[in-house]
Amino acid sequence: GWPYDQAAVDTLYADWLDNEGHHSKLYYQALLAAPKARAKVPAAALATPQAFFDYRRQLWIQLMSAYVAGPIELIGGLLIMIGLFTRPVAFLCSGLMAFAYWMGHGTRALLPIENRGELAALYCFLFLFISAYGPGIWSLDGLKGKKV
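Above: the chain sequence. Below: its structure as tokens.
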């Protein structure tokens, strides 16, 4: 059976929305009912709905950093450094820095000087400049005569 008070769950149900604005009653009930899943979530994250969704947001940011942003920064940085596929890679890196700015800093304040996002904004515009300007004469793209 269900060990929790159904009225309490229904009361919380009105407040629990996932990031897309959909109700997550089944997810919440499954989390409360499954001891193994509940053990993986810190107790502070289950205290309030806002704490839970802040916890989920932090997990999402960590996964993005590890599996998406990290390889783009590493491989993209190397490709820009040697000048191979400079324009599309710099454009991708510029978008990544814009995403990093708005996800990591832009939620605190609008201006970079207020939210400590100066480097993310600088790299965003630097990569955008490289994307618009193109490779230099000593790059692999420049040696081949490519206009990529």
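The chain is about 70% helix and 0% strand.
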